[in-house]
Amino acid sequence: MSINAIAPTDTRSFFRPVVTELVDLLRGLPADAWDCPTAARAWRVRDIVAHLIDTSVRRLSFQRDRHTPPALPRPISSDADFVSFINALNAEWVSASKRISAPVLTSLYSAVGTELADFFEQCSLDASALFPVSWAGDAGNAGWLDIGREFTEQWHHQMQIREAVGASALSDPSWLRAVLLIAIRGLPHAYRLVSVSSGTTVVVEIVGDAGGIFSLRSEGSRWQIFSGEADAAAARAVLSDDTAWRLLFNGLAPDAIRASVQTLGNVELLQPLFAARSVVV
To answer: How far, rounded to the nearest angstrom, does the alpha carbon of residue 66 sit from its chain's CA centroid?
Structure first.
C-alpha cells in the first residue's frame, strides 16, 4: 500500500455544532451533576466548563482583539517550566470560578463559545500559529494546527463531561476523525529521541468510523507521519478510535493501554506511541 502526505485538517466549521451540543447538555443538567468527578484528575464538571470558558476568552482576547498577554511570572527555559506555567494558569481561573453559579457558567460558555466559532470561521488556515503547538514540536507553528488544537480541547473536554454525567457521546464521528487527525501530528515529536536506521516504519491502525491507517517513518534524524500503510513495518499498533483519543489525551492508565492495543513486531518501537500525549501534561 502506498503512503501519502496528510493534508491540513480544517476544523473551523466544527466549533459551532460542538459548542451547541455542550450548551444544550449543560442547560439540562441537574444541580448535583455539576459536581460529578471527571477523568480530568481533580476537576469536576463545573471546573471543566470554567476551563473551556478560560481558554476561549484567552483566544478571543489575544488573537481576535490583539490584547497583550500579561508578562510571564518567571522565565520559561524548559518543558517542565512550560507545563508548570500552563497548570498554574489553568488552576488560577478554575479556582476563581468557584464563585460562579452553574447557570452563569452556562451563559458565559454559550456566549464565548459562539464568539469563538464566529472568529474561527473567519480565520485563514495559512496564518502562523498564535500559540505554537508544543506537543507537535517543529511542526507546531502552522495556523491550522493551532486552530485544530483548540478544537481538540473543546471536543475532548466535552467528552469528559458527558461521561461524568452519563450522557451520550458527541453525535458526529467526523468530529472525532478531525480530533485524531490533529492529535497524531504529535507522533513525530513523540519519537524524536528514537534513533533507528532511516526508513524504519511504525504503522498505527485506528479502527472505527473515525479511524484510518498511518505510518511513522524515520528519515535520518527526523520522523515523519503519512497516511496509508508502509510496506515491511518494523512494528504495528492496532487500536480503536475510542482508545486512540483516550490514549492521546491522557485518559488511559498504562495497564489499560496494554489491554486495549494490539501490538505486532518490535514492541519496543511502540513505547513512544504509548507515551505520546496531544495535550500539555
So the answer is: 24
Determine contact, residues 243/276, Cβ cutoff 8 Å: no
Q: Is 78 exposed, middle or buried (0-12, 13-18, 19+ CB in 10 A)?
A: exposed
- Taking all residues of the chain, what is their mean pLDDT, rounded to a whole number? 95
Counted domains in the chain: 2
Residue 237's CATH number: 3.30.1050.10
Cα–Cα distance measured from residue 123 to residue 80, given in angstroms and rounded to the nearest whole number: 31
The CA distances from residue 273 to 119, 194, 215, 258, in Å, are: 34, 11, 12, 12
The answer to whether the beta carbons of residues 249 and 163 sit under 8 Å apart is no
Final residue of a structural domain among 123, 144, 171? 171
Q: pLDDT (tens digit, 9 = 90+) per residue, 161-215?
A: 999 999 999 989 999 999 999 999 999 999 999 999 999 999 999 999 999 999 9
Q: Is the pLDDT of residue 1 over 70?
A: no
pLDDT in tens, 125-145: 998 899 899 999 988 899 999
Q: Which ranges in 97-223 belong to alpha helices (H)?
A: 102-121, 143-165, 173-183, 187-190
d(C-alpha 35, C-alpha 31), whole Å? 8
Give the domain range for residue 138.
4-171
Question: Residue 144 is part of a domain; what is its CATH number?
Answer: 1.20.120.450
